[in-house]
Amino acid sequence: xxxxxxxxLAAAALVALPxxxxxxxxxxxxxxxxxxxxxxxxxxxxxxxxxxxxGHAAFFGLxxxxxxxxxLHWGVSPWIGMLAGGLLAAGFGLFAGYLSFRYGLRGPxxxxxxxxxxxxxxxxxxxxxxxxxxxxxxxxNRGSAPALFLFAEKLPYYYVILTMAVGALVITRAMERSRMxxxxxxxxxxxxxxxxxxxxxxxxxxxxxxxxSFLTALGGTFYAQYFSYIDPSLxxxxxxxxxxxxxxxxxxxxxxxxPLLGSFVLTPISELTRAALRGRAGADIMLYGLVLILVISFxxxxxxxxxxxxxxxxxxxx
Amino acid sequence: MTWLFxxxxxxxxxxxxxxxxxxxxxxxxxxxxxxxxxxxxxVMMLGMYASYWLFVLLGVDPYLSILVTGxxxxxxxxxxxxxxxxxxxxxxxxxxxxxTLGVALFFENLALVLWQGDFRTVRVWYSGAxxxxxxxxxxxxxxxxxxxxxxxxxxxxxxxxxxxxxxxxRALSEEPEGARLVGxxxxxIRGVAFGIGSACVAVAGALVTPFFYVAxxxxxxxxxxxxxxxxxxxxxxxxxxxxxxxxxxxxxxxGAAFLPGSLKQLVVFGLFVVVLLxxxxxxxxxxRGR
Amino acid sequence: MSNxxxxxxxxxxxxxxxxxxxxxxxxxxxxxxxxxxxxxxVKVGYILPVTGPLAFEAQLALNGLQLAVDExxxxxxxxxxxxxxxxxxxxxxxxxxxxxxxxxxxxxxQNVTALIGPxxxxxxxxxxxxxxxxxxxxxxxxxxxxxxxxxGLRYCFRMQPNARAMATLTVGNMIxxxxxxxxxxxxxxxxxxxxxxxxxxxxxxxxxxxxMGYELVQRVPYNLRSPDFTPELSKVKASRPDxxxxxxxxGDSKIIAETAAKLRIGVNALVGLANAxxxxxxxxxxxxxxxxxxxxxxYWHNPQSARARAVFEAYQKRFNSTMSNxxxxxxxxxxxxxxxxxxxxSTDREKVRDAIAKTNLTDHILTQDAIHFDEAGESVNATPxxxxxxxxxxxxxxxxxxxxxxxxxxxxKWKG
Lengths: 318, 290, 416
Description:
- The complex is a heterotrimer of chains A (318), B (290) and C (416).
- Chain B is mainly α.
- Helix content of chain B is 73%, strand content 3%.
- Chain B has one domain.
- Chain B has helices spanning 2-33, 40-58, 62-85, 93-115, 140-162, 164-174, 176-181, 186-208, 219-233, 238-258, 264-278; strands at 130-133, 136-139.
- Helix content of chain C is 44%, strand content 15%.
């Protein structure tokens, strides 16, 4: 009974509480949801598809830059620019994905090539004056303009990212239960066997890639609108790539709620460390490293996997 | 223009030697353990700090510090492998990758916490030494680093060829099942391989300390380069790593000299992607199952 | 100044801080009368990267702030507020954007009258939104990017020269000096790190070439993390410049200077542009031969001013090290605030903001005329000093009216 209620209560709290919270508690929640969202997007390709991308920042950055440039130069509302960014990112994802999958890159090789792609985009952005090079792009925020994805307060941003996060979860669930989901699961288990059984691995993986990259790009636009400033290292850098995959792994790759749960867990850890080791920069990331090691070693299916295993002891092996 | 080209070639080769040593360690680790060690650069950074502290506190010359840091980081490498990696030897490949990522995050930030972010430099009497060969600059510390790196890498290659442990490593790397069958102590050799790889990279760190600086994130640039070199040279191919080091050093250097902006990185990554796609076994590697 | 981003994850708060914040807010709301009654203290918050990659420089700035606060309080505090003392409240950004935001928000909730910080331009972009939203005066410290004050901000002020001023005035000073020495500068090359800081400087040096009468013969952005800059410097040498400008951070600037010397780069002088190393006392002490006669255009104190000299010595005595440009900035910005507080005779943020906007401060230790701000919040007369390392320490060799020693130009060892 309690188990059923808990998620509902949590959901209700997430919707109702924020207007009552002080400003930086709200900021924290936005952060949690933001990384949970990124994790969920990554999860589609990484957790479900089994293709561990270390360069998802490529899509994030493409989204952020596309919507921002469209907005700054042609006044296109970022709500629309977001979609354009998503399409561009999906296109790039298909391109990168096609090259990688077609040439049979799997496992760590795939991870490395995605890392390379993200870095290459970063270097291009740094050296390209038209997109601002290292000076970055400032998104002017003069107050409320909801039609232009600009809000004077933090609260509306919170609801946007909440919607996005929930949306990502819903999409993940739908995908999980669809044909694509089953095909992905088969590929994840054993790609060659799946192929032999008639699954078109290439197009399935590409579909996952397209979806994952599209959604990640939307996160880039949110970032640009929320922080009002983007530059190559912030958007194409490892902070985003790793920031997205960590919650997914810790929470449970290949599960619907894993990424969000992971984000809700990692963030307080960071804060507790910061509070406990007052002003020791890096202490929190050090702990992240440790948590990552511990989770991989003892909870290889993440927190969700662990919770499930405890709930269904008999025959609960994944 | 010819001078610019020659200078770039020389600089590239000098740096490439160091890349080669760093990559050799990484290649060895991959060959035996089949994991891409993300913590490689972090270990190099720790090696550099070790050399730094030995210099500052005890006045030990960085080159001499190798005698201490080599064995020390061999031990540290073995420990890391035993504690973190070996227990998860049967885990999914990508999980093992993430393990080394965790180690990297841990070490890099440990250094930040312990020693803060400021740059530290080691200045020895030969730090400023250099000479010109037909107008082309050769800096002595860089020459020593490159030379030392090549010597150590060759020495290691010899070790792999002639000693029992070396042969066991090669056996495990080339033919894992067969190695098991003939009684190679797999667990021990895996630890040794990681140890040697870590020692290599720590020593490489000591070699660059006289002309580079020490900070918690110095390993990062070498880390990326090491991956590129290893892919180029062929995973598990020791000599290939050395050759790959020179190639990458040259590519980077020529890119810096002749391309606008900081696009040299694009050359290196571009090379990386092309090789990964078209010849993932590396330029010098032999095709084997991935 | 740095766009160095670590793996920056969130800036959450725990229960403890949450409760403290809620407590602070309710206390402030519940007792406004208490606050108005007797302002025995003026709370000033700083947000600096005291830990993390910029910790060293941030500490130097903090030293300057602290020196100023102690001097002000020692002399009786803010007279127009009945001798109220200044209390410095700390904020650590770790050079991360989210932390900058949350620390600013936290300090604002603790009722600071003004905020000082944050070093990195990246952090500044974000924090200025917070301070603007909360109508809190924000005095920038070491933040160089031009566009930080863009957008009609009312509460943001910058005392130091912005990037444009740094670049144009430094190069301008060099050209002037070269002309007076009879060896005019016609061909300029610039190497800069490829992040925000370096690129901004590079853009200005390039944009002003025609106007200032020189040709930009080579511009080389470089990756901060490179272990070797020989190819880049070779490119520079091949373009035969008279002057090489370097805009970079500590480690890379060191390697560049070393390699440039060995390469016999052939310029008349090497000048840093807001360079993190070239006028840094620690760098100079550790690299005597290398740094001799290096130029740097940077913030500095005025050697002609008796007060500046006194402050310099006070710093030396207290912190047992030479006051660097960060210390100077920290010290002076606090006095700008003090001056504003005296005139405002209030800790009300709006009044203080207005007072800052009307600043016309001549009693300062910088190498410039009176400090006063324009509509955008930029300090109109802000001028960097042109320094040259002579005899193991940086001395002011320009502008002419602040001269401490005559410049040595051309510099033989760079000539090759």
